[in-house]
Design brief:
Shape: elongated
Distance between the termini: 48 Å
Structural class: alpha+beta
Number of helices: 16
Bound molecules: flavin-adenine dinucleotide
Length: 423
Amino acid sequence: MPSSPSSPEVAVIGGGPAGLIAAEVLGHAGIAATVYDQMPSAGRKLLMAGRGGLNLTHSEAFERFVTRYAEAQPRLLPTIEAFRPEDLRAWCESLGQDTFVGSSGRVFPRAFKASPLLRAWLSRLESLGVRFALRHRWQGWDEDGRLVFTEAAGQAVRIRPAATILALGGASWPRLGSDGTWAEFLTRHGVTISALRPANMGFLLAWSDLMRGRFAGAPLKRIALIFEGTTVKGEAVVTADGIEGGAVYALSARLRDAIERTGQATLHLDLRPDLTEDALAKRLEAPRKGQSTSTFLRKAAGLGPVGIALLREASPSLPTEPRALARLIKAVPLTLTGTKPLDRAISTAGGIPFDEVDEHLMLRRMPDVFVAGEMLDWEAPTGGYLLQATFATGIAAARGALIRLGIPDAALTGGLSSATGQT
Ligand SMILES: Cc1cc2nc3c(=O)[nH]c(=O)nc-3n(C[C@H](O)[C@H](O)[C@H](O)COP(=O)(O)OP(=O)(O)OC[C@H]3O[C@@H](n4cnc5c(N)ncnc54)[C@H](O)[C@@H]3O)c2cc1C
């Protein structure tokens, strides 16, 4: 089988944001890097992320920001301190893409979508001498320790770079390239992998035929969801087989873990989070004057058809007593029986545990192999936390590779930081 005559200094495998930012750090340091990706173009999931608005990061106080990584916070903290939310904004702006803070504190590029940013980024990488080997599917290592790829025509390509950065993503939306097959190659080398699980996903719920038939796709606006004492205000959507949407994603890690433990989880839906139970009960004391229940609930409690259907779903014979009815409207029980599959999740939990890497994100069992992005075992809610940690770990892994290659500190600080205008 042919083998590539000139191996790059550093092979970056995976052309998502983690791999691309790693290649940028290497490029600024004057290191020849080649980005390998199995897809015909780089950054496909980034483009998908930009569809509904590319939420790059979040503007909340740093102390609060880092709590979003839950158990992974202590391990991610040094990397995110080295590349903070304001650095990500500055980097984006250095590519000619202004950013703005949305009403929720989330940060977006002014263009909202990802394509102008990705275009400018790829052109910067090209000017830095970063090479791309697209349609190259990584297959692990051969018995001589060389990286093996299969290129489009089915030929095997083998290389032995000085260092390798793995940035292969999680396993959600596999048609965009990240399919999680890397787990098998690393397991063969003794690396422990925590099971890849959905994160920021919808849940399954056994709706009645009526609910499914009439309300699949119905939005639930200005609601709150409550689970284990945590209340999240926001929006959700009824689907044919369950529920999903921003407020659901925010609670999804805890709901998923509860379902794994006990087989189901009861989520409570507050249909009127703007009213106290007292205020709502008072409104429901109004005389019904021959109105149908639906008309009464619409007028007295401001509920729409989907809200009323949800009440009936939870309690077919609705309570008539105002206080009991108010209590139900403020906490409609929804029994979740499972998670939507990983391939439709926004992100992936599980992956390479931090115990498997050193402080430079180098695999302890595989010297010269670094890992970055969603393939590491951390998770976070939506809100820009996913991309922030993806970028920060990409930078940390590239800096680790540079240190390993004996590149002096000056090149490390002069690279990405001078490009983004940081000091
Ligand atoms: C619908 C959707 C919306 C999102 N919105 C946001 C958002 O607004 N804000 C946010 O912070 N995050 C968002 N995310 C999450 C974010 O896109 C990811 O966290 C991020 O892309 C992870 O980056 P990564 O570089 O680690 O992996 P990826 O972007 O998945 O890149 C991995 C790359 O590796 C390549 N690869 C995988 N296996 C192989 C192989 N064997 N050989 C060669 N190449 C391989 C893939 O082709 C891919 O290009 C969203 C995700 C989705 C699905």
